């Protein structure tokens, strides 16, 4: 497993599939001071010819979670490659983790590498909004795991069962609730309100 020299400060973008995490991550990563990483995106970018990518796809198409050790190892390798290429600049950028950790075991495995400063909890109380977002994304992005409604419902169930306990792992004081059913601009404003103080506390900007 790749070794990180320091624990990187990070904020989690946390929430159910379809809650709008990826949209915000993509906007925020364009703002100086943030580096967004999504494990779902990393998995979809793996070379499909490799054994690893084939194994991962088997889980993704069924809506199941990829095993923890494999997930963490791919995540760390990806992160270290970005750091080595000077794309991720740990002294100047807060990591925004989207889609990881997804189990309490992943939280524990990440502890050595990642210092979670804040959890942005994207709450979307309307299940149908999420199902609808996923349905539209299936058309736009051609994602196989979004295409079937039964797989979507299964992902939402797994989120409830395996991923929501992640919230209990962290200090309640660092969990910030964001209503993610609003306009992207409104959700962005909510995120920035919480993230800017974290940037100021952890980085020096010239
Ligand atoms: P996402 O794009 O975040 O919805 O992720 C797509 C799929 O990738 C998920 O349904 C899982 O099969 C897999 N996946 C992404 N992140 C993780 C993770 N942290 N742990 C396990 N599986 C993951």
Q: What can you tell me about this protein's structure?
A:
The model has no long low-confidence stretch (mean pLDDT 93). The longest helix has 19 residues, at 184-202. 34% of the residues are buried. It is globular, with a radius of gyration of 16 Å. With 206 residues, it is an alpha/beta fold. The protein has one domain (8-202): P-loop containing nucleotide triphosphate hydrolases (Rossmann fold), CATH 3.40.50. It contains ten helices and five strands. It has helices at residues 21-28, 39-45, 51-62, 68-84, 104-110, 127-141, 144-147, 149-163, 166-169, 184-202, and strands at residues 8-15, 34-38, 94-98, 114-123, 175-179. A five-stranded parallel beta sheet has the order 2-3-1-4-5. The structure holds adenosine monophosphate. Residues 17, 38-40, 43, 59-60, 63-66, 71, 99-100, 102, 106, 145, 155 line the site of adenosine monophosphate.
């Amino acid at each position: 497993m790749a070794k990180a020299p320091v624990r990187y400060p990070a904020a989690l973008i946390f929430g159910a599939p379809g809650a709008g995490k990826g949209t915000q991550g993509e906007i925020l990563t364009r703002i100086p001071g943030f580096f967004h990483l999504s494990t779902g995106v990393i998995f979809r970018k793996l070379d499909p010819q490799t054994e690893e990518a084939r194994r991962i796809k088997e889980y993704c198409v069924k809506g199941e979670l990829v095993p923890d050790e494999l997930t963490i190892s791919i995540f760390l390798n990806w992160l270290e490659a970005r750091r080595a290429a000077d794309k991720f600049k740990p002294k100047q950028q807060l990591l925004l983790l989207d889609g990881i950790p997804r189990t309490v075991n992943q939280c524990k495995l990440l502890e050595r590498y990642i210092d979670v400063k804040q959890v942005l909890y994207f709450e979307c109380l309307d299940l149908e909004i999420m199902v609808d977002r996923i349905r539209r994304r299936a058309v736009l992005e051609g994602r196989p795991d979004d295409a079937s409604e039964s797989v979507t419902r299964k992902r939402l169930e797994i989120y409830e069962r395996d991923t929501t306990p992640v919230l209990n792992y962290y200090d309640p004081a660092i969990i910030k609730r964001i209503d993610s059913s609003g306009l992207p601009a409104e959700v962005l404003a909510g995120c920035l309100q919480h993230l800017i103080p974290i940037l100021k506390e952890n980085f020096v900007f010239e």
